[in-house]
Amino acid sequence: MNNTFGTVYSNPSYILIAIGIFFLLFFPLITISEFLFFEPFIAFSIYPETTLSFLLIVILSFFSALAVSMNIYRVKLIKKTKKIGSSIIGTIIGASAGACSCGPIAFSIITTFGTAGSIASSFLSVYEIPIRLTSIGILGIVIFVTTKSLSRECKINP
Amino acid sequence: MANPKKIAVGVVAVILVAAVTISFSSYMSDFDNVQRSSQDEGKTIALTDVPVLGSQTATVTIVEIGDYQCPACKLWFDNTRQDIIENYIETGKANLVFIDMPFIGADSISAAEATYCANDQGMYWEYHASLYQLQQHENDGWANIDRLTAIAFNLGLETEQFSECMNSKKYFSQISFNKQKASTDFGANSTPTFIIVNTSGTAERIVGPHPYSTFEKALDSLL
């Protein structure tokens, strides 16, 4: 497994892709989840109650960055796109949790869809942590399967 | 070339600031007399009917727009509000008003009504605090009528009077007025939203459960 990571990230462009994907997810997620504020002053705050949620965002962004960059490498090598779909699904599931609470997104959903919107928003808010954990689990499986697949299909010797 | 999006945002901001300025100029200058008629039941309802925490003659007013089922409002209540009370409200520099914007579910409306029913017995802020202290998940029944009555009982309110107030929907119009005011005049589209305004009408808008440092900067700039 270490060799697979070494092979993929020995190419600096994949490190850059991974870093780019990490920040592309991390900043929007911490903004939507109200850890980072831009107005009226730039402010960052983690309250004791939200520490776990913040850590899950960091893990989710990290796993997404790994899963997507490794799959880009894999696609370039063997022209199969199946696992990229799984990593994107995992990322979307994780990103959708926590975005709905009492922020502008939830307000739009509830005012547009009424009771159904309220139920959906409440579900995403109440089950934020299990949803993010599920998402991290999906991404973990994608990373594991991708590394296995790369070491087998590309004949990487341990 | 000017960005149309920026122009639109600028126009909205100007309208908002103007609305806040106009609204609060009258609110602050003639606190007891300004009355605005409600569409409902022909009853006169006004922003002046909203309870005030702190000195009514304070230089700065913090308007909090919130929903009792909103977890972000609870975060602010638990982590930031007390510091503001100690440093700005108890010192007479600022006061705080709460404008209900119940949108998360039916229990949000009942909870907002309950605070006004508690206000009939002089316990608005105590009830307000109890709701945030006891908040659970959205729409899971923690703020149903039975629980709201139990909270009133625990605070030592006369429960018969409280229940009568709740059952008669005495403050439904007030809550509808507050909600409309929050979304139209204050332009709130999420909770908590804060409008901090001073007596000269200069306002600062804060959206979300910001840390105390944000409020400190905003309040100090308006004092």
Structural description of this entry:
The complex is a heterodimer of chains A (158) and B (223). Chain A is mostly helical. Chain A has one domain (2-153). Helices cover 77% and strands 3% of the residues of chain A. Chain A has 6 helices and 2 strands, in the order ααββαααα. Chain A has a two-stranded antiparallel ribbon with strand order 1-2. In chain A, a hairpin with a 5-residue loop joins strand 1 and strand 2. The mean pLDDT of chain A is 82. Chain B is an alpha+beta fold. Chain B has a 5-stranded mixed beta sheet with strand order 1-3-2-4-5, sandwiched between helices. Chain B starts with a helix and ends with a helix. Helices cover 51% and strands 12% of the residues of chain B. The radius of gyration of chain B is 17 Å and the shape is globular. Chain B is built from 8 helices and 5 strands. In chain B, helix 2 links the parallel strand 2 (60-66) and strand 3 (94-100). Chain B has one domain (4-222): Glutaredoxin, CATH 3.40.30. Classes of the chains: A mainly alpha (158), B alpha+beta (223). The interface between A and B is medium-sized, with 25 and 32 residues.
Instruction: Supply the number of helical segments of chain A.
Output: 6
Total discrete domains of chain B: 1
Helix content of chain B: 40-55%
Strand order in the largest sheet of chain A = 1-2
| Biggest pleated-sheet summary of chain A | 2 strands, antiparallel
Enter the CATH topology name of chain B.
Glutaredoxin
Major sheet of chain B, described briefly?
A: 5 strands, mixed
* The first-level CATH class name of chain B: Alpha Beta
Rg value of chain B: 17 Å
Low-confidence stretches of chain A: none
Number of strands of chain B: 5
Query: What is the total domain count of chain A?
Result: 1
**Strand order in the sheet with the most strands of chain B:** 1-3-2-4-5
Task: Estimate what percentage of residues of chain B fall within beta strands.
Answer: 5-15%
Q: Structural class given helices, strands, pairing of chain A?
A: mainly alpha
Shape of chain A: elongated
Helix-strand sequence of chain A = HHEEHHHH
Number of strands of chain A: 2
Largest interface: A-B, 25 and 32 residues
